Amino acid sequence: MLRKVLRQCYSFHRPTVNVYAVPRLYRRLCSSPSETTAATISIDRSSLYNPPEHSHRPTSDSELVKHLKGIIKFRGGPISVGEYMSEVLTNPKAGYYINRDVFGAEGDFITSPEVSQMFGEMIGVWVMCLWEQMGQPQRVNLIELGPGRGTLVADLLRGASRFKNFVEALHVHLVECSPALQKLQHQNLQCIGEENAAQDTDKRTARSLFGTPVSWHSTLEQVPSGLPTIIIAHEFFDALPVHQFQKASRGWCEKMVDVAEDSSFRFVLSPQPTPATLYLLKRCKWAAPEETAKLNQIEVCPKAMELTQTIVERISSDGGGALIIDYGLDGVISDSLQAIRKHKFINLLDNPGSADLSAYVDFASIRHSAEEASGEVSVHGPITQSQFLGLLGINFRVEALLQNCTEEQAESLRTGYWRLVGDGEAPFWEGADEGVPIGMGTRYKAMAIVSKKQGVPAPFQ
Fold first, then answer.
1. With CB atoms counted within 10 Å of each terminal CB, which end of the chain scores lower, N or C?
2. pTM (2 decimals)?
3. In 284-319, where do the E strands start and end?
4. pLDDT tens digits for range 381-423
5. Is residue 241 within 8 Å of 86, Cβ to Cβ?
């Protein structure tokens, strides 16, 4: 089936895109976080450690800053890093993702679907292969979590359009909380005939250029169940709020965000256990003692554990599978939370809401969460993105596209290909240093969670 899919879908080509923006992942990995000076932290708030002075502090508080300070004042104490991250990214009125397009060269970072059409096409190959293993059901829910501009699904549908039975079986569900991004997704999928456009997002449905129904939802739970389901989560888990813990003389203490005397934000440590401590204990239980013994900081992501459980429950009841692609590690994460604005790192507490916050994905935690949630699913991977795309046939795809394109398109294809599967700077680059393609192939990882009824999915065999 894999060879059949590859042979038939390789004549489609979408317009090239600007691939010269720096991938947020590589910049994250190559620009190590600023090291904080070791300090003895006491419960007395006056002597707690303050981060370096903000370099871009706004002249007046934004609505989000006022909101955050209001929460801290109302509670009479600091909030967790996880709550801070959640408010900064998805606050309904002023969250980073809510009212703007943050992707691409003009945004703050670039993702794989924006690098090259080949990424969405290879995801389409994976989805079609799983659909084949599922017995080619006549109706399937295809769900993407956090679809960005909708580029991945658009390329998937374009590449798969020759497979009439497959495309006609799909009902695309986009889980997106941002009205601004929903509008972009609607445009990129060239949707027409929208129903309930003025109503709640979980009731909106339109049809794409290829006749595929597309619906929007704020959460995964709003997507109707009862049909075989295929879920795609590309660079979604990295934006889920993490809780940070630091080892102190009294044990593991959660890192919190407080307001300093000069009204700026600062990090402090919780003087007593917090609700997230339960997730820390669970994560440490899954890890080998030697894995955590030398760590002074640990990140845990309760939302990732809970989301994994929700995904597994859906797959167990409806059949199908999920594909997770993100940057991260197959083990305990120490201190990875970063803020990126205009492709550059900034202070985490600098003008909240103006920069992207994200953290490495703990793939081992996802695996343990899935296996605890149900015995009816199997977990495969993670493998590197380079391995994943290579085994699905991206090498053949780029060769096919290069046979019928202009020199400018060929250059874009070569650089896009390297960004997806390469490692480090492209050896063939002859242009300006600031434009050198940076490979993400070994930094990103792919993991699949599928119903055991489907067997081992491609290309994890």
1. C
2. 0.84
3. 297-300
4. 999 999 999 999 999 999 999 998 999 899 889 999 999 999 9
5. yes
